[in-house]
Amino acid sequence: MSAATTRSRTARTPAPDRLCAEAVDLARAAAEEAAAPGVVGEHVAVVSEGDRVVTHYFESKEPGYRGWRWAVTVARASRAKNVTLDETVLLPGSDALLAPEWVPWSERLRPGDMGPGDLLPTEAEDPRLEPGWTGEDEPLPNSAVSDVSQELAALADAEDAELTTLPATNRGSITSVAEELGTRRARVLSRYGLGLAADRWDEEFGARTPMAQAAPASCVTCAFLVPMAGSLRQAFGVCANEFAPADGRVVSLSYGCGGHSEAAVMPKPPKPAPHALDTMRVDTYALRPADDSGSVPAQPDGSTEDLGHS
After folding, report:
1. Taking the complete model, does pTM exceed 0.85, yes or no?
2. What InterPro entries does this protein map onto (predicted)?
């Protein structure tokens, strides 16, 4: 090893200054002044920070700061014999108990965290939303587009004047079309927002769930499925079976459960035949059986009189 290499390594990691390394009492006094009484423990290490700059480490007994250490940095000027104090700080060690990394509230929020009275703000440039129709882009009254809209509105109103009551907006205007499509809002869901909702719903009530894998049929053929409006109706609906696990929830058309309307149809009980009563004929019945019917025992003459006198 050359002398140049030795000098280079020595410059990067200089040996601790002797006077600074011996200033343990000065470092302890500084740590005890900054900390609460009785929380500065044993001296554990000395680390050289540079030329005539040394950091002393003391064990911390502060409750809740397991593995932390008090670090006191001291220094000495060139050719001086007095060691001076630079700084005192509490630092975590390699096995220190640390708080979790801070996460913004918008990333900590989870479904179900909101309660009554809570407000959830949305960003102005939220990728899940896009501008809706608010009427701000309505064509000017004297424009060509406005003339066409007015003509269409007048024609629609004339056709339905006798059958309907006129709404608040003209039926032929862009505003009325926006109302029918459900887009007359400041912002509506974007394709990205729709995709997030679809992925979330499909994960909870989709074809890959254990319930759907064991189902006798899918929701697309179930009578309890209520179709949705908009483009999501092609893949989702709302369950209306009160006994199903997804009652009142948005389910994928490929989802299924044992509450399918056609899974186990109970047969109707057979109806008994109606009682037949003939009211058109009168049947006569004798009050006493005939003598030759075999139902009356034969009696000798005078038996009736004997019975009467007995």
Report:
1. no
2. DUF3027 (IPR021391)
